[in-house]
Fold this protein.
Amino acid sequence: MMKSAARASVVDNRRRSVRLQHELPVAYRSVGSFITDWATNISQGGLFINTRKPLPVGTVVKLIIQLPGTGFPFDITGRVTRVAEWGNRTNVAPGMGIEFTDLESSKLQRIEAFVERLRRDLGSE
């Protein structure tokens, strides 16, 4: 299991699901090639990818995620719902918010189990 729980924290920013700060490697397809970046928070409904080159809002993306404690990575389809450009004046980390779409129940269960484990580890129940 990844040992980044010490740097993790709970983020409550009025979303449908509580987002938990946790660095997680993620790959996604953009213009015919795969890009690897870091998701910096995750919830049961989506994640935020820290990147200086976010895709436009509305873009459908295929993500490949490796959750700690799982044997192999799996793919998820999502849609860009929010973008924070590099050098923004609000001092928000650059990147893009991705909402999961068409999530199979087996993948949803793995994400929910990971988010619950992380929430317990952070003592945020």
About this structure: Confidence is low (pLDDT under 50) at residues 1-20.
